[in-house]
């Protein structure tokens, strides 16, 4: 009886293929590029305005003084999206009122921030829901202060 039977040759060939597959050279693994780090900073309404998603700019919006990077939701908050009015702006009043109208935005960017004191309990609850949603989904990249505030960035 010979070792070189057809079944043994097939098994030896299969074993050789399996060993080759296990130890063959593999292509180096490349990791995806991480996004650049975002540094927490202080914004004023005028320094926040350019972060509206136009071009390659990220999309930021402020809610109750906290600035969120909503760039991952650019199709909603960026140009052409349903919430595009809020990009680069303080969206607190509009979110509280569930209104996307331009009238909900502070027109005087050099003036004081909207204190939201005239909001009803339902509107404040609505705003809190939005703020919680943003906190769960997006990074806080800064805070919003009024022009002339001691913490305001120097131009």
Automatic annotation (TrEMBL):
Domain called Cytochrome b5 heme-binding: residue spans: 43-145
Keyword annotations from UniProtKB, A to Z: Endoplasmic reticulum, Heme, Iron, Membrane, Metal-binding, Transmembrane, Transmembrane helix
Cross-referenced Gene3D superfamilies: Cytochrome b5-like heme/steroid binding domain
Keyword Heme: yes
Pfam families named among the record's database cross-references: Cyt-b5
Subcellular location: Endoplasmic reticulum
An annotated GO cellular component: endoplasmic reticulum
GO molecular function: heme binding; metal ion binding
Listed InterPro entries: Cyt_B5-like_heme/steroid-bd, Cyt_B5-like_heme/steroid_sf, MAPR/NEUFC/NENF-like
SUPFAM superfamilies: Cytochrome b5-like heme/steroid binding domain
The keyword Transmembrane helix is annotated on this UniProt entry: yes
Record field: transmembrane: 6-23
UniProt family annotation: Belongs to the cytochrome b5 family. MAPR subfamily.
UniProt-recorded name of the protein: DNA damage response protein (Dap1), putative
